[in-house]
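Example record for the data management plan.
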Amino acid sequence: MNDDAPDSADDIDRIMEVMTGAFAPEYGEAWNRRQVSDSLLLTGTGYCLIGAEGSFDPDLAEPVAGFALTRSIFDEEELLLFAVLPQYRGKGLGAALLTEVIARARLRGIRRLFLEMRRNNPAGKLYTGFGFRTVGIRAGYYRTASGVRLDALSQELYIADN
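Corresponding structural encoding:
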């Protein structure tokens, strides 16, 4: 996880490419460039990129397939954004990226990982497979472009070693 602001705009550009291609516009979940760059200025916020070939934090020659953006405080971390481009889905890259996020968090002493997602998010299968469990529901939190309201599921995963 890169816990510092990027040295150049290259990584933000790569994050934005994935953001644009991975998030369906109808749900309004994608962040804009300013939101991403501003979040990376905050202490405890970091990101991880996964390349098309499965490498982490790939060099500029390898296309980026996905990213995770996290924020931590004390021994807890929140998965703010997690995305894999549609053309790379179903190849294990999402699971590899989530495994890496968890491993890096564990190394930093993180004990619990949180996320929030809309109820019908297909990534829910991935999160459930890793042991995330729903700990709260925000009824009608998300609104689609057509005005339909969808619940947000707050989930957590204990990652501390026993």
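Summary line stored alongside the record: Confidence is low (pLDDT under 50) at residues 3-7.
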